[in-house]
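Co-fold these.
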Amino acid sequence: MALPLVLTNNYTYEIAILVGLNAIVCVGLNFLIGYAGQISLGHAGFYALGAYGSAVLSARYGVYPVISVPLAVGGVAMLAWLVGKPVLRLKGHYLAMATLGLGVIVSVVLANEDWLTGGPDGMTVPPLFITGEKAWYWAVGAVLLLTVWLAQNLIDSPRGRAWRALHGSEVAAAAVGIDAARHKLAAFVLSAAIAAFAGALTAHYAGFLTPSKASFLHSVELVTMVVFGGMGSTLGAVLGAAVLTTLPQLLTVFKEYEMALFGALLMLTMIFMPQGLVPTLEKLLAAAGRKAE
Amino acid sequence: MLVPSLVAAAAMLFSAGTFSQEPIRVGAFLAVTGPAAFLGDPEQKTLELYVEKVNAAGGVLGRKLELFAYDSGGDAEKARAYVKRLIEQDRVDVIVGGSTTGETMAAVPLAEAAGVPFISLAGAVVIVEPVKKWVFKTPHTDRMACEKIFVDMRARGATKAALISGSGGFDKSMRAECLKVAPNHGVQIVADETYGAGDNDMTAQLAKIKSTPGVQAVLNAGFGQGPAIVTKNYRQLGIKMPLYQSHGVASKQYVKLSGDAAEGVRLPAAALLVAETLPANDPQKKVVTQYKKAYEERFKQEVSTFGGHAYDGLMLALEAIRRAGATDKSKVRDALEQTRGYVGTGGVVNMSAQDHMGLDLSAFRMLEVREGDWALAK
Amino acid sequence: MIAQTLLSGLTAGAIYALVALGFAIIYNASHVINFAQGEFVMIGGMAAASLVETGLPLPLSILLSVGIAVLVGLVLEKLAIEPARGASVVTLIIITIGASILLRGLAALVWDKKIHPLPAFSGDAPIAIGTATLLPQTLWVLGTTVVVVALLWWFFNRTLTGKAILAVSVNRLAAELMGISVRRVLAVSFGLSAALGALAGILIAPISFTSWDVGVMLGLKGFAAAILGGLGSGPGAIAGGLALGLIEALGAGYLSSAYKDVFAFVLLLSALVFLPNGLAGRRVAERV
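Predicted complex below.
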């Protein structure tokens, strides 16, 4: 929240806003990956559907953005519910592949139906009622805080405990009477809805949208942010989003080495901090604390 | 008393010999990596090369040029962030960039809102139609390519043509334009096939085209490796009709990839590709020969029309700054709009308030592949 | 037209099968999904193309390229997979994704971002078979795949190393107790998968060219084929690859070429819904 003191111009505000938006998606995705222990390699699909849903409704059908956003989110939630039921019966790598497939399908459809979506070159999106970098910054910040609050509350609720039991072992959880399917679906739908919301906000903020938002690479980016920050940790999700959104901006000085460096950094951090950033730091601090005693 | 005045005199002499004023900031966002890398890579090299040359020759209005170039990877969202950075953080005076239409359109609202002259290096007609106050472009539009091809088709006696295109932005945009303008030139499109981005075999689509009744010529509105595969498949199936490609594959690479199959293929392109064979009295001869030589000498690589568009963009911007006598953005914008008779690698540019591209059909030359090289079509 | 479509489907299917085999072998040995598998395909094709461009004869370039890919595979295993041995599935996935980004970045630096052709092994003259025409290269792709599959069968069933790899995939602990060096098995698996990927890249390059980012989509489709066939099953991978190639070609030819990629994944999703462990996959027992 003290960031505005450091942010000097619209460009830096933009980065902060993008970090915030990514963080919102990641906190939501964390419910699915970190808590419920499932994998989704196609979450960018939900994100993009939320974005395009709101964009198309407001740009082509004249719906006010204030209404098109919740409509889009609701639509995506319903889709996630429909699709999630059969797909979540899969496990492990099979689930990963299924979600990956879903993401690719969304991405191809968005790119091909150019009469609706403007095709691969994208479409312009009408703005929301919020104008100006600073206003957006506070708006996104507020939504992020809300999402984090939701996360903290969920974790300690019966639902949250059910998720954590699922993560440990589905068989054991079932043995204690937890309805695995229902809870998995809940995590899936919730994280999809949050992703769609963030997607819609991004669309109206940027004023422009392309189908690459639904790409496999984008899904991978989102999962990477969550895992990098630390699965099962809300703070980790936020931090992961922050680091991985700003890093490419910082690496531009390396020009053509940017991609190789990014890949190398990713590998090294995951090899030496396999739990992710936050849990590793927590362990270090705990160890330091014990030493001090 | 003597020492301070000597020091002062030395300081003044020294500063008089250097560029003592603010540099002119030129911003660029290009797809140097990613799927559109063969657009952005020569574009960046060209900008770097000529900023260096111009500085070596004394700069513009006695001021040095400073280039801020970012790699958008062809991604519209990244491009947006970089354009914001260029405008807000680097405070550039003019932007030359946007290798692809997607990136350009994402950047347009930013340039318009901030009032920064923006010269795009992308192809689609939507960039300058409708005209936007601060946005210009140097490459020929896809619509012009269609028209040039249809005129040539008619000259060879073909009135029924088949269209085959890919799924990329460039392909779709050009296909739409061709469908629109074909009737204006008396050409009827009798088949319309498509292929996917990573496809390695278009024989099925071409077989369909071959068996369409009455078809006399084929137009491949494509970009990247698809057209090369189409060309190879074309020969594989033994199709004898004239094949036209788009200006998107106006490069030696296309010829290399297609091999012998490219013999006889025609496409509209900038005179840059046939610089040596242009007649001596051709208005573009001097500019294209000089650019080709400088680029190939420095980078040991074949010159590309996309790099040529970047050259034109930079030179137009600098010319406008010279004529405006300042880097005041409004003045530069007005000067850009008043560009007349500028000879670039893409053609002779005449801008106006309604035309922010300034090229006409004569700027495109119809080229043909002969013995593995480009030649002016007769 | 059907003959032409089937041929092009089989060709693509053979390539997917090779890539899928690579996924299967590494998964069997280490339970890791190597997202960098597609990059082996890229390295094979690009190395061969650049070596040929410097003047080396084609057969030598091919051998050297496969060798380079194998080397990269071994280095990857040593530097990235081994240190992260106990990490979770998702972490390992991220590591291999990082590896694929790194390899792509390096490829763009070492070579360039242009598209490169590879000369066809025995010329470009099309062969007519009934109403369809065939490129000689297609015969190379199909023929080599058959030979490779036969060699692999012999390797896994008749040689000690091959059997050791199978043993590790069935039960690692038991294999170690029997004196099998898991380290060596891992290395061989990675090397073998890299070789398969590189071969696929080299075979297809004369038909559809190669470039620094050709590995992404191929890797994805190979992965899909491996899953379709049942993760960890060699024959399943081959069946999955061929099925994928054929469905794609048929869908593109008769339904919609714009949605070609979608057919593959829709097929995959429906298959997974009815066969949660793929065509030939084993049921994974879960320990509580």
